[in-house]
Design a protein that fits this description.
The chain is mostly helical. Helix content is 81%, strand content 0%. The two termini are 26 Å apart.
């Protein structure tokens, strides 16, 4: 049991590490051109919506996208209409991120790790290095999820764990558990990721997953 717990913790740490570093690294890659591209691709509501979806999927943080949008609105770089499109897109982007997590991409994470590492190793360009870091962090993120997924497999045979997971089917209990986990690890993305993994393993029911998320 201790090995399972340590593996889950290790996977969670890798996931959180990647999420926390992805945002700042992507901003570094975009550089000062970020404002230019945002202004260029938010000329109408539809394009603003798409920008919100894409950026949130990349950053894996709708909160960060919304905060950046508020800053741009206050700076009069974006209109209210443009901001609404981005915010709506950010909420959709969150579901896209969850769908990506639900796919079995974790098994291919070593490829991303290798590509990112090689780019960091052979390039002396700051932009290329930053891009390599983004790819590397995505690899770390998916590898963390893959580690947690494999660690949870033996728990399918543990009666006490299955009994505990049944409690999440009660809306209030599930919501409290989800809120507490998110409060502790300070990442709703990680909570959603773990809920998806548990569901894939048959350890979390649909009702429980909805309550937790």
């Amino acid at each position: 049991m201790s090995e399972i717990i340590l593996s889950i913790i290790a996977g969670l740490i890798l996931f959180l590490f990647a999420v926390n570093h992805l945002s700042e690294t992507i901003q570094l890659v975009l550089g000062e051109n970020a404002k230019h591209w945002i202004m260029k691709f938010t000329s109408n509501t539809i394009s603003s919506l798409l920008v919100g979806i894409v950026v949130t999927t990349l950053l894996d943080s709708s909160s960060a996208v919304i905060i950046i949008t508020i800053v741009f609105v206050n700076s009069r770089l974006l209109t209210f209409r443009q901001a609404m499109g981005i915010v709506l897109g950010a909420n959709i982007g969150t579901t896209v991120s969850s769908q990506i997590i639900a796919m079995d991409i974790g098994k291919y994470s070593p490829i991303l790790l290798l590509i990112g590492f090689v780019m960091l190793l052979i390039s002396k360009s700051e932009k290329v290095n930053a891009t390599g870091k983004v790819i590397l962090y995505f690899g770390v993120l998916f590898f963390g999820l893959y580690t947690m997924e494999n660690a949870l497999e033996p728990l399918r045979e543990e009666a006490f764990f299955l009994e505990w997971m049944k409690r999440t089917e009660e809306p209030m209990s599930g919501a409290i558990i989800g809120a507490l986990v998110t409060l502790i690890i300070q990442s709703s993305s990680a909570t959603v990721g773990m809920a998806i993994i548990l569901s894939k393993k048959g350890l979390l029911s649909l009702a429980g997953g909805i309550a937790v998320m």
